[in-house]
Design brief:
alpha/beta, four-stranded mixed β-sheet, 23 helices
């Protein structure tokens, strides 16, 4: 299907769609389409669900909102059960995705890709990362999300008499520790994070790796779990150890909220939303998503963690892992495909941008995107403009499989508690990497 530059709405595109044969239903026989989504994307998905119901009388879309813990662990059981969702949310860098792919539990959706013209609209780079080893497509990528920075409550900083850096750079660990002390003295938990989430600490580590490990070495760490990539960098390298040490310094300086290791993402979000934490690591909650979910209206800005290499400008990490699939056990596969086509349409991608949940993964009409940005929270808009001007950093955790990124959070917790040191962690990661190489 050829796309011209003219804006094509989802309604027109779906009216012309003929590739999916849908079940018939009467007013008394409503079909429920179960769609999984993340909490921070829920507002955007509600808009898609409403539009889908409007276009498909007799269909009710039920949003199954996943928290971070469920998505990382028990969602595997949900997706393979008799109550499997019709559209699943299985990020590529989490264990459930790898397990589902290995067991061939996702339905190929090459027809969705063709109808939505995704190969062209994603571009060659993104498209190539989404194709499975068998050459088929099993998922769509909704959008890109930035992480590795802290959302801050400007009112809390004002009360603590802290001047917010105009360039968004905290700059050094000494500066962060000074901020933390002032914020605690003013009655705030300095920074909230999901310490028991299973990945929040790893995503913080990503920021330190990006600003501390030389690019060629970091690139090798992202890829050397594959047997045909030579191992030129060890996880025992001094720059990796320094990145881990810097993360421990934050814990030792009591910058994290009290009881952090026993608190998940929801607790961290609640502390920030209630005005009890002055900073919150921006992993799963963009300001738009946070405000809609917890009904708060904070005066927001953002700051980047201190660089591991002194003087280096810190950039946001870019995540493209919010992917959606159709489980083999889904009851309404054809409707699910139709939902994915609508989800990836220009119209709904613009709604996703306007919701503040993230950036579109597909190419959109420039004028329409600029208009969508005008509705974003000022802090989100500032972050996007910053990334557009200075760029972003690919995260280590985004590039390696769950066998590696899924074990680092427990290791970091033990590092905090003095039960492991950075050399032990490096040695263990090398061993895991070598095991992955032997099986690839």
């Amino acid at each position: 299907m050829h796309r011209n530059s003219k804006f094509i709405t989802a309604t027109v595109a779906l009216t012309a769609m003929t590739i999916f044969t849908l079940p018939s239903s009467s007013a008394a026989d409503v079909i429920t389409l179960t769609v999984q989504t993340d909490s921070y994307i829920q507002p955007a998905f509600k808009i898609v669900a409403d539009e889908f119901e409007k276009q498909n009388p007799g269909v009710k879309v039920e949003l199954q909102v996943l928290d971070a813990q469920t998505q990382t662990t028990t969602n595997l059981q949900i997706m393979t059960s008799d109550a499997a969702p019709d559209v699943a949310s299985a990020p590529m860098n989490l264990p459930p995705y790898a397990a589902m792919m290995k067991a061939k539990q996702f339905v190929p959706i090459d027809d969705v890709w063709k109808e939505a013209n995704l190969k062209e609209r994603y571009g060659a780079g993104v498209s190539s990362t989404l194709v499975a080893p068998d050459g088929k497509n099993y998922q769509v990528l909704l959008g890109a999300v930035y992480y590795g920075f802290a959302w801050i409550n400007k009112d809390a900083f004002a009360k603590a008499k802290i001047k917010i850096p105009a360039d968004h750079q905290i700059g050094s660990m000494a500066n962060l520790k000074a901020m933390g002390a002032k914020l605690r003295a003013a009655g705030y938990e300095p920074m909230s994070v999901g310490g028991s989430s299973g990945y929040h600490l790893t995503w913080m580590l990503d920021s330190f790796l990006a600003s501390g490990v030389p690019e060629k070495k970091l690139s090798n760490l992202r890829t050397n779990f594959v047997s045909d990539v030579p191992v030129t960098t060890s996880y025992t390298h001094a720059s990796v150890g320094k990145s881990l040490t810097q993360l421990k310094q934050i814990y030792d300086a009591k910058i994290f909220q009290t009881g952090v290791l026993g608190q998940d993402q929801n607790v961290g979000m609640a502390l920030f939303a209630a005005g009890k934490a002055a900073m919150m690591m921006g992993h799963n909650a963009t300001p738009g998503g946070l405000k809609d979910r917890l009904r708060v209206n904070l005066n927001l800005d953002f700051l980047f963690l201190p660089p591991t290499t002194p003087g280096q400008k810190v950039l946001p990490n870019l995540s493209g892992s919010n992917t959606y699939q159709i489980p083999v056990k889904a009851k309404n596969k054809e409707l699910a495909k139709k939902f994915l086509v609508l989800l990836m349409s220009d119209e709904m991608q613009l709604e996703y941008v306007k919701s503040g949940a993230g950036l579109s993964a597909v190419k959109l009409p420039k004028a329409a995107v600029e208009k969508a940005y005008s509705t974003l929270d000022p802090a989100v808009l500032k972050l996007i403009r910053y990334a557009n001007k200075f760029g972003s950093s690919p995260g280590w955790a985004e590039g390696v499989p769950a066998g590696l990124n899924g074990v680092t959070d427990p290791m970091i917790q033990k590092l905090f508690l003095g039960k492991k040191n950075v050399k032990q962690i490096g040695t263990e990661l090398d061993a895991i990497r070598n095991k992955l190489r032997s099986s690839s």
